[in-house]
Write a structure and sequence with these properties.
Layout: H1 3-15, H2 21-31, E1 60-62, E2 75-77, E3 101-104, E4 107-110, H3 116-126, H4 142-151, E5 162-165, E6 176-180, E7 184-186, E8 192-193, H5 216-226, H6 230-235, E9 254-256, E10 262-268, H7 273-286, E11 292-299, H8 309-315, E12 321-325, H9 332-342, E13 347-351, E14 355-357, H10 362-371, E15 375-384, E16 391-392, E17 397-401, E18 407-411, H11 414-419, E19 427-428, E20 437-440, H12 441-446, H13 460-470, E21 474-486, H14 499-514, H15 519-525, H16 538-546, H17 552-558, E22 570-578, E23 583-586, E24 596-599, E25 609-612, E26 617-619, E27 622-627, E28 630-637, E29 646-648, E30 654-656, E31 661-665, E32 672-676, E33 685-690
Parallel strand pairs: 10-11, 10-13, 11-12, 15-21
Antiparallel strand pairs: 1-2, 2-8, 3-4, 5-6, 7-9, 13-20, 14-21, 15-16, 17-18, 19-21, 22-23, 22-25, 22-33, 23-24, 25-26, 26-27, 27-28, 29-30, 31-32
This protein binds ligand LR7 and manganese (II) ion (MN).
Manganese (II) ion (MN) binds near residues 352, 354 and 435.
């Protein structure tokens, strides 16, 4: 971009902060046709900087256009002090009552259209073709067209509609078409509330709520009930304001006028009243109503009274909200399947029951699926603190796992950072956290929905991740779509069989169906599971065959190359028992890298090692290493040049090929060391299992 153009652009962007997005886009695109997406916009771009505050757009505008079914006015909140806002009809920066504002059921909303006339031509010019457009106007792949189109029939489609004008000439003359609306618009930042935001109220703008010491007992009761600070949650408005957390570049992205609609599916069991309602309000207030077909609340057999009639009565005011009651406790996996059965939207969007959707959260999700129906997309998860309910933006991260197959977050690897042109770009993620994602409804079923054999909680997130990638789809986290989630350490509901057993059983089903020759790595972590029943997985195995899915090796190499794969070619495994003192080698990372000796417990875990065919003693991705001047044997990366290579025969010595020393015990018999070989009993070792070649 020529320097002069860049300067013009920056001047406009900073001085016209919050001026109509349409106008801004026009300026951006006409002055810089090849807009530089990596341009870092000032921090204040989303309204954080007081200097740029626009006085004509105060905290909240009361709209005198229409009464809600509840007999009260609704309000479109406008930005101030860096909160995310319902920034809707941007015509010269003010909301125009009557300009497409309508009520759909009882949900107040705008039938909102950006000021198309101004951006029409530049739009066309700007839209790139590829699928890596990151919502900056990516075109839809033809492959995606069919299925979604089938789903949205009967829905008005802006791009097909034409603005016509009666000419006043003969009545039989066809109306003259004067303009065709362009097919893309900037994100619709709605935040329609029943009352104006009280910006000084508790928790507003996502600020933390502090409690007085005298409320300690109420706080404790709330925590017991909800595993988060329910007392504080109850103090906060159900329609509270949230801080702006999207990367600035999200502003210049465009969304199709033809986006398919979505059913929102929220399963819950024993959820707190205020968090459940806040979840629903945040969806209703901050989603373009034409894109939300329905909100399905699936009650997984909650026993709390307030979740029965009182919930029915409350939700009766929202025609889009339907409550499905399960007749027995099913767990979140089968509960979601029940929601999916009745869902009518072209896309399904699953949410946990204690979230808050950020302004503008929905269109980015739908857009990416509209462009390519095989994408499974997640909002970036912001964090709602379980104690103070403060809303904090999260860093850019992606989903991963280690060999215990538990989901966890990791930083974005360099290969992925390089691929992304700026912070707003989708993050391709090996796994999803599981609770919050959108998927095209037909694609969900084509891919095999969920494994019905999984109970209550856990494992389904890794399962759908492996399945999606291996069977032809992809997964992304979209930083322009954000939803806050209350992260808590325990669950308030019961696991009929205990949480560990349930989680492990579900996970074992994943391992058995998807892990191929890598299964032993999982079982070496959990030898006790080798004999445990996990139910019948034949249907899932058949599904994998039917879909002709790629193998797990492909997934590891192409989707998650960061995971360190231990050598799967092993000759002995499980415990490593010292025959001199009849204790087992034991490695606990948090106690240091050395190998200690403890009574053998046969439970695997810290006492589960492997002897690879190469002669390495492995634990996960660590190997026994030794240094000449330190007798203690330590577990370090298998890539270390000090990795030891052992010769061993059953029940005999473990001799390092290089130094010709043998595994032995320290004088105090606490640690494993390398010592000169002497044939004594403490140099004799036996592995739990020796495998045939
Ligand atoms: O038996 C149950 N029936 C239910 O309906 C158990 C749970 N549920 C509901 C529950 O009320 C909640 O709405 O299911 C939802 C998830 O349960 P949580 O909130 O107790 O679980 P979580 O947030 O700790 O769990 C994460 O991992 C789960 C694995 O099974 C699910 O995939 C959750 O949806 C998932 N949550 C998220 O991805 C949000 C981000 C958390 C992270 C990381
Ligand atoms: Mn949750």
């Amino acid at each position: 971009m020529a320097p002069s153009k860049k300067i013009i652009q920056v001047i406009f962007l900073t001085s016209m902060m919050w001026f109509s997005v349409d106008v801004m886009l026009l300026i951006t695109y006409t002055t810089a046709p090849e807009a530089n997406f990596s341009l870092k916009l000032p921090q204040a771009f989303f309204g954080g900087d007081k200097k740029h505050e626009r006085d004509e757009r105060g905290g909240s505008k009361k709209l005198n256009v229409q009464k809600s079914g509840l007999g009260e006015d609704f309000h479109v909140n406008q930005e101030r002090d860096g909160i995310a806002v319902g920034d809707s009809n941007r015509k010269n920066g003010v909301v125009h009552p009557g300009d497409g504002i309508e009520r759909n059921g009882n949900v107040a909303h705008f039938n909102q259209r950006p000021n198309f006339e101004k951006v029409e031509d530049t739009n066309k010019q700007r839209i790139p073709d590829g699928d890596e457009g990151g919502n900056d106007g990516g075109r839809r792949k033809e492959s995606g067209d069919k299925s979604i189109k089938g789903e949205v029939q009967g829905k008005s489609s802006l791009s097909e509609s034409k603005v016509t004008e009666t000419t006043g000439e003969k009545a039989d003359k066809p109306q003259q078409e004067i303009k065709k609306l362009p097919a893309f618009h900037p994100v619709r930042d709605l935040d329609v509330t029943s009352k104006p935001h009280d910006l000084d109220g508790p928790g507003e703008k996502g600020k933390p709520v502090k409690t007085d010491p005298e409320d300690a007992s109420k706080v404790a009761i709330g925590f017991k009930h909800a595993s988060f600070n329910e007392y504080v949650s109850d103090l906060i408005s159900l329609e509270r304001s949230l801080p702006e957390r999207r990367p600035p570049e999200c502003r210049i992205k465009k969304y199709s006028d033809d986006l398919p609609d979505t059913s929102i599916i929220i399963c819950f069991t024993e959820e707190s009243w205020s968090t459940l309602l806040r979840t629903v309000h945040s969806v209703l207030n901050r989603s373009p109503p034409d894109l939300v077909r329905e909100i399905l609340l699936v009650d997984d057999f909650s026993q709390r009274d307030y979740l029965k009639e009182p919930l029915d009565e409350y939700m009766a005011q929202f025609p889009k909200v339907k409550i499905i009651r399960l007749e027995k406790r099913e767990g979140l996996i089968r509960a979601r399947l029940r929601g999916a059965e009745v869902a009518q939207g072209a896309i399904m969007t699953f949410l946990d029951s204690h979230v808050e959707c950020h302004v503008g959260w929905l269109e980015p999700l739908l857009q990416r699926i509209w462009e390519d129906r095989t994408r499974v997309v997640c909002p970036a998860l912001d964090s709602i603190d379980a104690t103070t309910f403060s809303y904090a933006g999260s860093a850019d991260i992606m989903g991963a796992f280690e060999w215990d197959l538990q989901f966890h977050w990791v930083g974005i690897p360099e290969r992925e950072q390089k691929r992304r042109k700026d912070d707003s770009y989708p993050i391709r993620t090996p796994t999803i956290a599981g609770g919050l994602f959108s998927i095209e409804r037909n694609w969900f079923y084509e891919l095999g929905s969920y494994d019905k054999g999984m109970d209550i909680w856990g494992g389904e997130n890794i399962e759908i991740s492996l399945r999606t990638w291996m069977c032809g789809g992809s997964m992304e986290i979209l930083p322009c779509s954000r939803v806050g989630h209350i992260f808590r350490k325990t669950q308030p509901y019961k696991f009929p069989e205990g949480n560990m057993i349930t989680f492990l059983r579900n996970t074992q089903r994943v391992v058995e169906v998807w892990l191929d020759e890598y299964k032993p790595i999982f079982y070496s972590k959990r030898p006790e599971l080798r004999k445990r029943k996990f139910g019948d997985v034949s249907e899932r195995v058949a599904l994998r065959e039917r879909l002709k899915c790629k193998d797990f090796k492909w997934y590891l190499e192409n989707v998650y190359p960061e995971i360190v794969v231990p050598d799967i070619d092993v000759r002995a495994r499980d415990e490593l028992r010292n025959l001199g003192i009849n204790k087992c080698a034991d490695f606990m990372l948090n106690k240091g890298p050395q190998i200690s000796l403890f009574p053998c417990h046969g439970q695997g875990g810290h006492q589960s090692f492997e002897l690879s065919k190469k002669g390495h003693v492995q634990y996960d991705t660590r190997c026994a290493t030794g240094k000449r001047n330190i007798p203690k044997v330590m577990m370090f990366s298998c890539k270390s040049k000090d990795t030891l290579t052992f010769e061993h025969s059953k029940g005999g010595e473990m001799k390092d090929v290089d130094s010709q020393k043998c595994l032995d015990l320290s004088l105090d018999r606490q640690y494993v060391i390398l010592a000169d070989c002497n044939g004594r009993q403490t140099q004799r070792w036996r592995w739990g299992a020796y495998l045939k070649d």
